[in-house]
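Sharing a chain and its predicted structure for anyone who wants a worked example. Both blocks are below, sequence first, tokens second.
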Amino acid sequence: MPAGPVAWSFIATGSDQARTRARGFDGAVPVGTTVTIRSAGQVLAETLADERGRFDVSFDAADTVDIAVAGQGLDAEQTLQFAVRDISAAQEEAVVQRLAQAGSVPNDILIPPAYALATDALVLVVNSGDNTVDNLSLVSGGRGFPPAQLSDTAGAHGPVAAQPFAAVALERLAAVTRMGQSGVTLFEISTGQIVSALDVNQPVTLPQPFVPAVPVDANNDGAVETSISALVPRMFEGIAASGNRLFVAASNVLKSGTPAVYAPGMVLAFDVVGTTLACANPAVALTSFDNPQTIVADASAVYVVETGVLDLAGGSWHTTSDGGIDILDPATLTVTRSINLGRTAPGSAAVTANGTYLYVGSLLHPHVYKIEIATGTVVRGPDNPIVLFESADVQSIFSLVAHPMGLVFASSFNTDQIYAVDSADDSVSPWPFADPLKVGDGGMAFGGAHMLALRPGRNGVDFRGADLVVLMSLAARIATVDTRFIMGP
């Protein structure tokens, strides 16, 4: 790899019908540099990188090409050789392996950044069925240490299972939510050793009494209530971190089925002090819509995805209330902006690498929505969604991840496919991702492409090997993807 300021992170070359094409996405080369394509010393094409560090040129067929970058302050021309691939074959080759069997009812996966560049990088798997957080090697599929085992707790009606739901990394530690116990557990990533845990068992007073559609037992004491003025947060699901502060979504589902009853959703904040957990101050915020499930956080904001009420009727899920996004101040938990997405059941989200846009996936449709963060403008909403594919059936986009080169990957649960969306123009399956990545069989035997995790760093520069990991939750397996087969030298 060349030294200097040229990233060379992901630049694709491949056959595009009768001609060969070379393309660089966001930050592939410095802005304004001259990009020259040569083969056997002959210049095949030349162009300038645009304001996003992108380029896109076509030229006569060649087996290998040199891509040279010059100008804009570079001391000398920098050149790297690329093999020209057939894109369809490259996409099949990119799904490089399927790792060892996951645990029972896997819910989430995580590639801890502090371990991501290691040759034998770890992926953590959260299993709610057997109450574990497992670990697998991205290379061998083997385990480095026994899974972290989360214990039952005593309840009024017997043992209560942990049902871990989601995890987030904080340097050498990771935190996992326990949906069944309304708690958070902290453990060492390298050993699986649990170091501390915190349960929330004090009720939160609601600003005004909540009147459920039907009487429910809101306090798990065997008695039903027709009006609820305070509630112990329940069903901890999504979790995110900003620095040493954790943010947890409490969906507060009081009754599933038809009619479903959801109490007001909550976001709870915790501070990690050393290896212990403490409730933050302020500790809780109410959400604008029901059923918060996914949380994404950075230093400036917390993004909370709320589905609205989901009813199961006639064997199919549908919404009975609007869903949307809350943007919170991470220090005060104040809702700074609330964005209504209607009855689209938003359930997943990712912030683009440049921090400009929030992409949101639907749990009921093969649709993705786009929000400009600075203004809260819904660029692509229910009236003009980004359509991954056409379908009249319920289709779930459970996970989105933002790629540093300006792409967003979306998992399609029912089809076992991973779609790429280009944030520059919202095109679906942009070349060289000319077709979705197939990580399972699809059809009646679909394995359920559920959660995605992207390995931090630059594949081919900082590390080699799989960089995209897919949790196949129905099959309880992990699929790994090496996008360098499609995009790299």
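Comments welcome. The first helix runs from residue 87 to 94.
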